Amino acid sequence: SLCMPPQYRYDAARTALAAKKHVFLEKPPGATVSEVEDLKTLAAANGVSLFASWHSRYAPAVEAARAFLGSAKIKSAAINWKEDVRRWHPNQEWIWAPGGFGVFDPGINALSIATHILPAMFITSAVLDFPENRASPVAAHVAFRTSDGLPVTMELDWLQTGPQSWDIVAETDKGQMVLSGGGTKLVVDGKVIHDEPEAEYPMLYQRFAEIVRAGTSDVDLAPLQHVADAFMLGKRNVVEAFFD
User: Fold this and answer.
1) Are the C-beta atoms of residues 146 and 170 closer than 8 Å to each other?
2) Which of 56, 90, 134, 221 could form a disulfide with 96 if both were Cys (CB 3.0 to 4.6 A apart)?
3) pLDDT for 30-87, tens place per residue?
4) Where are the bilayer-spanning segments (predicted)?
5) Rounded to the nearest 10 degrees, what angle do helices 222-233 and 104-117 cross at?
6) Which residues of 19-35 are buried (b: 16+ CB within 10 A; e: fewer)?
7) 184: buried, middle or exposed (CB in 10 Å: 19+, 13-18, 0-12)?
8) Same domain, yes or no, for 50 and 60?
9) Catalytic residue ranges
10) Residue 90 and residue 181 in one domain
């Protein structure tokens, strides 16, 4: 299992795969889409398994949310992922460096859930707020749409103090769905459908064991691709300097 900052993960993963070791990549799986594609190719060539793990997808209420949305007509969706960087990543300079993702480090958790429970979507616009003294954004405002025109918005903020917000809200013909707590609680029209403590990592390692036994890999790059698209398409907005 590799969990160093993404800027340094490729070389470590390539060394392990070349030595015919199975590799579990913590999120995000790499600093770029193309380097993870290269790792997929190397894993296949060496007959070993590569797992790009998205831990938030294994939160306890995610599958129930996916099942509900699969049975409903979605009208719109909104992702709100707001937390306090000083609490979760204090004095971690790598996360502000190029390739460190900034606010997309937690934001990619939201995207890993959204790409699992919502129809396929693509970014239409984005504004990324960069502190004047940092190389990665502290906030992001992103608009998506699906091929059918379904609007999806995403608000990321790394300066929220007090209660933290990790929510996906969908308006549907069966009522409002709220998936909160990073995927631990599901409420539909005010009724609690699912609510239990996080238990992601046992399920992640169970999945890793499954693909190793099957001789396959599991490398879904959709969340990482959305982050890359946001940086490609996003307007850069310079905001006040950030200091820990």
Assistant:
1) no
2) 134
3) 999 999 999 999 999 999 999 999 999 999 999 999 999 999 999 999 999 999 999 9
4) none
5) 120
6) eeebbbbbbbbbbbeeb
7) buried
8) no
9) 27
10) yes
